[in-house]
Design goal:
homotrimer, alpha+beta, six-stranded mixed sheet, 2 helices
C-alpha cells in the first residue's frame, strides 16, 4: 500500500496517509506564536482542520489526539477552545501532558491520528 | 469504515475503534489518585483491562504503550506493577518518559493502542 | 490478524507488527549512552534502521516519529543527524518535545510507527 504525504518537506511531512489512516505531524501555532495559549490552540485546531480536509477527513474522524502543553496550568484555557471545537458524540481519545516545546513561543502542540 | 466510541464524552472518548484497531485515551487513576505510583499504576492497568475487554481485546493484544510518569524516579515502582501485569511472550512495544500530568495527584498516565 | 513481535522481552517487545503496520518501542542509545546527543541520535537511528529491516520495512516507510529530547536546547544537534538520515520526498510526520528520559545518560529517545 503506497504512502501519500501532505506538505512533504526535507525534514518532515505535515501528514502521511496509509490507506485510510492519517498521521499528522505535531502542529504548533504560526501567526499566534508567542501569544496566549487559547489563541494558539484555536490556530492549531484550524491547521488540523485544514490538513484533515486535504486528506479527505475531518475532526469527527480523529482516533487519538496527544496534546503537549508547555505549562500544564494552561489546561483550562486550552480546553476552552478544544471543547467548542469537538463535536459531541464524535470526540476522539485524548491524552494531555506537559512538555517544553521546540521554541519558547510555542505553548501548545497537538498530534492527531485520524481516518479518511 | 465506521468508528465506534467507548464511553464517549463531550471532551473526549475513552476509546475509539476503527475496524480491529483500538485507541484508548490516556488513563489516570481515580480511586488511588494522590496515592503512591504503584497503586496508581495497578489501578490504571485495571482500567485498561476493562476498556480493552469492552472492545473485545485484552492486554496480550496491545501494540504500543506510552507511559508518562510525573517523576521519572518512580520508574522502578511503576515497573514492579507493569512486570507482573504483562504476559511473557505477548509484551507490547513501550516508551516511558517523564511529563507533568494534568493534576498533581496523578503520578502516572498510560496510553495504549491495541487490536481487537 | 496475528501479532508478530521483534525481540520480545519480559517487560516489552522492541517492535510489534500487525499486518503491515509496525510499532517500535522507544529507542535509546546503548553504546553512546552518556555521550553527546548527536552521537546518540545517530545510534538510535541506526537501531531503527535495523528493526525496520527485520520487519521488512525501511526509513522511507515511517508514518510518524515522536522524538523526546532530555534537553530541548539540543534540537539543532539532533536535527543535524536526522536531516541527513531522512530521504527527501519520503519524510515522515514528526513531533519533538522535551521530556526527561528513564536514565540521565539518555539524551534522546525516538518512537516510530511504520509500514512494511
Amino acid at each position: 500500500m503506497s504512502l501519500i504525504r501532505l506538505k512533504p518537506g526535507k525534514r518532515m511531512s505535515q501528514g502521511v496517509l496509509l490507506g485510510n489512516a492519517i498521521f499528522l505531524a505535531g502542529q504548533v501555532a504560526e501567526k499566534t506564536a508567542g501569544g496566549p495559549v487559547g489563541a494558539q490552540t484555536a490556530e492549531v485546531l484550524g491547521q488540523i482542520d485544514a490538513l484533515l480536509a486535504e486528506a479527505g477527513s475531518d475532526k469527527t474522524k480523529i482516533l487519538m489526539a496527544t496534546i503537549y502543553l508547555a505549562d500544564i496550568s494552561t489546561f483550562g484555557e486550552m480546553n476552552a477552545e478544544w471543547d467548542q471545537w469537538v463535536v459531541e458524540g464524535a470526540t476522539p481519545a485524548r491524552a494531555t501532558v506537559e512538555a517544553r516545546l521546540v521554541a519558547p513561543e510555542y505553548k501548545v502542540e497537538i498530534v492527531v491520528v485520524a481516518v479518511a
